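Task 17 of the worksheet. Students: predict the tertiary structure of the chain below and write it out as structure tokens. Keep your answer in the requested format; marks are given for formatting as well as content.
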Amino acid sequence: MIMQGIDSSIINLVKIYADKRDIHLSPETFADLEESGNNVMVEGVIRAGAKAGITLHFVKKPLEKVHPLTLPVILVLKDKTSCLLMEKDSESAELIFPDGPLKTLSMDEISSVYSGFCFFLGKEPQPEPDRQPGESRGWFINAVKLSLPIYRDVIIASITINLFVLAVPMFTMNVYDRVVPNFATETLWVLASGVMVVLLFDGLLKFLRVNFIELAAKKSDMVISSMIFEKVMDLKMEAAPLNVGGFASNIKEFDSIKNFLSSSVILFFIDLPFALFFLWVIFYVGGALVFVPMIFMSLLLIYVLIIKKPLFASIAASFEESTRKSALLIESVAGLREIKVLIGSSRFQRQWEALVASLARHGIRSRKLSSSITIVMGLFIALDSVFIVIYGVYLIHEGLLSMGGLIAVMILSSRAIGPMGQVASLLSSYDQTRVAYDSIRHIMELPIETGSEKRFIQKDRLEGGIEFKDVVFTYPGAEKPALQNISFTIAPKERVAILGANGSGKSTLHQLILGLYNAQDGIILRDGLDIRSLHPRFLRRETAYVPQDFILFSGTIGSNLTMKNPAADDSDLLRAVEIGGISPLINSHSLGLNAPVIEKGANFSGGQRQGIAIARAFITPCSMILLDEPTSHMDGASEQGFVKRMAESSKDSTLVVSSHKNALLSLVDRVIVLHEGRIIFDGIKEKFFEKFFGGPGIKRSVSASSSKNEVKNNDSL
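Model answer:
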């Protein structure tokens, strides 16, 4: 049993343990758990601890069996709260509760409230020197290990079930050899009663075994699914997939692993040793008759090995085609409007039909190969029975076998070959699972932003300073750098505009400041600290960022606004709504903040979506504000209102804004101009107008084209 809900106060106990063991914890380590409410998942606590270098093993153990040498241990109490057991003896123990000092209680008092579950704590070993950041080893095995007690019960049940198999053939042999010749009816009913009891228990154990396997599969599914999603959410942007549909399809293939763990195929590995046991019993009863099933089992195995390679090739091809099909479907649905406008439906239809045909072709081939194993197996079982009867007749004639023995061998022979019959589904499921596992393993080995091997500097707040020193950055797969030898310094509370033509590197600059990407060369500092030494969550919590391309998520306006700060109170919401200028939108809807938002905010206009995105960024006070084309979807009046609100709300923060609109320049005092990834101007706003537009009084839009033309005509830049 795993307790799914534990009071979130357990986080404080882990922090106390870390402090006593001199383990550095970033404030962001348990941020997700602290934001999840009053209850946290056991698996969530374990994963968060692992990121901080703390191992937590959740076990069921009586209090008296907790050895003093293993202390401290976190005890889970019956009311789902927790306490840290520091010391104990036979009569009393010292405990630390989340909200109180050290207490001494008697063992009887503790036992009366102890649930029987506890966390054993330990310090993670230092990462291996050759281990790459983000590499995840043993993720699958570790998840399956959680179900080892259940698999132990499955093995015990399987051993008993396979021993019960002997009941019917032994009953039949004794009836034919002893009861029938002597008409010993009393013996008949005694034997019949015994075998019926065995069969009833056999059926019960089979039901229990199936339930055990399903329970273990469910347990592993929950753990691995959470691990995969957490991994995806923590991916570095450099490793983020460009083909979203294919990536999602690969993750969905985890269902193959889940089905493999929960299907009867897993029983093959348990039942296979008993096939050898049944062969020994056949040899004991029928002597040389054992060679008949052995020959057909060998022939079946040879056939399976022959078709294994083409079967795996078909399954791998089907997997690849399925991934491409999912990618095409998602791309087509996401771009449905553009496809209609460009009259491109026939092109996508042809691609879809080609993929479906290819997928069907590979699917038919793999199913034919799998079915052929079943057909061949049925043929071999029938031939096995025929040859056993033929050979058995000669053995009976020579007095080496009885009639009952022949029937018993017939029953046991089919049972011995039975596990080989599961090879068909095993082979098909295994190959499909292998392909899915390789795909998931690739995802688990992608580089991540955080991890137990990373330690971050702990700060309460940032002042808002930023410095670039000879920064060079190239996007993955790009032919040339997006930024080249960028150097500048922005002081706390300074107000700067980043201008330039499309593709000059403005948005890239914002993303580097946020730590979404790491520069290949040079260094980026926030308040004098290397940006890589600060926890990404802390960095972004201290930054209000309005991107050029924004996405709203399914839910409500309120859930979108509080995404960055789920604990936001009414004053935080009112402030954010005011800055975003979405009060009219909220007031016009009967549900207010509970107004529904469909995927990507498609039920709102572009300006309304942008207002929500702006409000969402300002749900918490920040030391730095990054605005990337924040008024691109606004009309003139809305833009003027935003500029006025931003001038007031950004007074205590560093402001960095990128835009082609002249109105936003009233917010800044300094301008940095980028051209093809290089800084070509850095100075006060008045100098910028004088340099590029002939004088400070000229009222012109800061367009990319005019800036680009001025660059071409001015050799001094």
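Marker's comment: The radius of gyration is 35 Å. The mean pLDDT is 82.
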